[in-house]
Design brief:
The protein has 8 helices and 11 strands. By secondary structure, it is α/β, with parallel strands linked by helices. α1 crosses α3, α2 (about 65-70) crosses α3 and α5 runs parallel beside α7 (about 205-210). Its EC number is 2.7.4.22.
Length: about 240
């Protein structure tokens, strides 16, 4: 994405699920997937857009699922999931910096040897100086997802939009895995998402975005260049514009 490329947003919050760091059904961090994400993020930053990234940790562990399947309390399992997001954040930071983009990892839990604490004013200052910030460890609290973190941080840093990068093309009117005739929605409202219980983000995150009128775009990360297309204002995925 060249520096003079068109862009619709000045400051964005990009939410990348942990599964984005490996192939479908894979585990951990795969070099090719990591570099693809990093290069797209670098291109966005070099276009002049201020970028904050919230990373998930599902490529290593999902707290809720792990707690159900094992004998570990949900709170502990969620903290384990937060540590998984730190792994992804550090990998993304190093790869982006190797590509020439100054990047800072900011964590909601204390891991001072490898990451800064999340401080809102410091985060905004990093963005103003042209640094990408990668936000790790969710909200720092168990029982809250990284989707909720994305909504919260977007409001805190006054982001213009949340871009949720997923493994599907956007929001469907029903589960496309169960209904082969499911229709992709190009536009939707938060009220519609809540009413039909469309699985795009958890209900806490959706309600937060609706209350604070934060725009959201859901799109497919695995299609090369999609992040740049969304930033440029192309009709990619599903857009939710608060009314």
């Amino acid at each position: 994405m060249p520096e003079n490329a068109p862009r619709s947003y000045k400051r964005i919050l990009l939410k990348i699920s942990g599964e984005g760091f490996c192939h479908e059904g894979g585990f951990g961090i795969e070099a090719g997937e990591l570099k693809n994400i990093a290069q797209q993020c670098v291109d966005i930053c070099k276009s002049g857009v201020e970028l904050a990234v919230v990373v998930g940790g599902g490529n290593f562990i999902r707290g809720a699922t792990f707690a159900e399947d094992g004998h570990i309390p949900r709170a502990t399992a969620d903290y384990m999931g937060m540590l998984a997001t730190v792994l992804n954040a550090l990998a993304l930071q190093e790869t982006m910096e190797a590509l020439g983009q100054p990047t800072r990892v900011m964590s909601a839990i204390s891991v001072h040897s490898v990451a800064e604490p999340f401080i809102r004013r410091r985060a905004v200052r990093h963005l103003e100086k042209g640094r990408c910030i990668v936000l790790a460890a969710g909200t720092g609290n168990p029982f809250f997802t990284t989707d909720t973190c994305a909504a919260l941080r977007a409001h805190e840093i006054a982001a213009d939009v949340i871009l949720k990068a997923t493994k599907v093309d956007g929001i469907y009117d029903s589960d496309p895995k169960k209904n082969p005739n499911a229709k992709l929605l190009t536009n939707a409202s938060y009220a519609e998402v809540l009413e039909k219980q469309l699985r795009v983000m958890d209900l806490t995150a959706i309600t937060f975005c609706m209350d604070y009128k934060i725009p959201l775009v859901v799109f497919n990360l695995r299609k090369q260049g999609n992040i740049a297309r969304v930033v440029a204002g192309e009709n990619i995925g599903t857009k939710i514009v608060p009314v």
